[in-house]
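Propose amino acids for all 280 sites.
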């Protein structure tokens, strides 16, 4: 009987310790979140601050995202989505260049990758050098790469909120896991649509709202801390962003990883088609 009583007492002690530990962690986490919210309110130029965060995290960004990249199979999704990239291609928010090895150079006439963070672009250039050493840089295999490198392939420091490109310049505009990092995502998406030709495609993978409302509330609660630490949020309503811009038809969409990985293949409508509904 004493043995069973000891086990019961031990179990109660374990439950009490677990409960105390959980309460302590939740209290600590809540204090972190509320402090981040207060700190964010005190920042006057939030766009400049976000730019500075992206510069700060650039060097360690790939390491920071390594577990998520593996568990969420984002490498696989990048490869599938980028198989649709053709013609003159623009990639917005190219970041550290994780997408570069997944393009099919045989389908691409020219490529421009842009990011507003010089430190992120430095990581992209470093990644290009690494891919070349491993013979995995697809653009280097193009016959025009060495003779016309600047015309065929280039990376540029550009603010995606105001891009220096002509209307209807690109056949395909790509954004992979950067929508949730922009200061004003509606403005950026409008710019993406502006520079894409009618009939051209916009390819999107983004973190965003999950299938679960309670978890979405948590994502919104911790958004200030995510912005301060990493320069992105996870509660983005991707579908609403697309609907707000209009003039876009849906080719394909999927949601993975509890609904938080949003995959879209979109087509820019011509002026005559602009009255059509975007949602399908």
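Proposal:
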């Amino acid at each position: 009987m004493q043995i069973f009583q000891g086990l019961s007492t031990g179990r109660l002690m374990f439950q009490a310790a677990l409960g105390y530990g959980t309460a302590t962690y939740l209290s600590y986490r809540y204090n972190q979140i509320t402090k981040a919210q207060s700190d964010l309110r005190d920042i006057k130029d939030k766009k400049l601050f976000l730019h500075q965060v992206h510069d700060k995290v650039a060097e360690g960004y790939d390491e920071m995202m390594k577990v998520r990249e593996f568990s969420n199979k984002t490498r696989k999704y990048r490869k599938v989505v980028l198989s649709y990239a053709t013609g003159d291609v623009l990639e917005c928010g190219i970041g550290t260049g994780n997408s570069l090895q997944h393009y099919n150079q045989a389908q691409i006439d020219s490529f421009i990758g842009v990011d507003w963070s010089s430190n992120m672009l430095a990581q992209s250039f470093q990644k290009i050098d690494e891919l070349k050493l491993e013979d995995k840089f697809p653009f280097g295999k193009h016959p025009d790469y060495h003779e016309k490198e600047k015309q065929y392939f280039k990376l540029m420091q550009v603010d995606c909120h105001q891009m220096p490109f002509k209307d209807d310049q690109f056949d395909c505009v790509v954004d992979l896991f950067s929508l949730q990092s922009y200061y004003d995502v509606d403005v950026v998406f409008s710019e993406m649509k502006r520079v894409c030709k009618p009939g051209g495609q916009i390819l999107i993978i983004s973190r965003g709202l999950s299938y679960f409302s309670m978890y979405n509330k948590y994502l919104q609660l911790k958004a200030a801390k995510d912005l301060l630490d990493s320069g992105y949020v996870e509660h983005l309503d991707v579908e609403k962003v697309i609907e707000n811009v209009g003039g876009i038809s849906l080719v394909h969409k999927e949601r993975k990883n509890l609904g938080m990985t949003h995959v879209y293949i979109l087509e820019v409508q011509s002026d005559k088609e602009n009255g059509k509904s975007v949602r399908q």
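Residues 271 and 277 are 13 Å apart (CA to CA). The radius of gyration is 22 Å.
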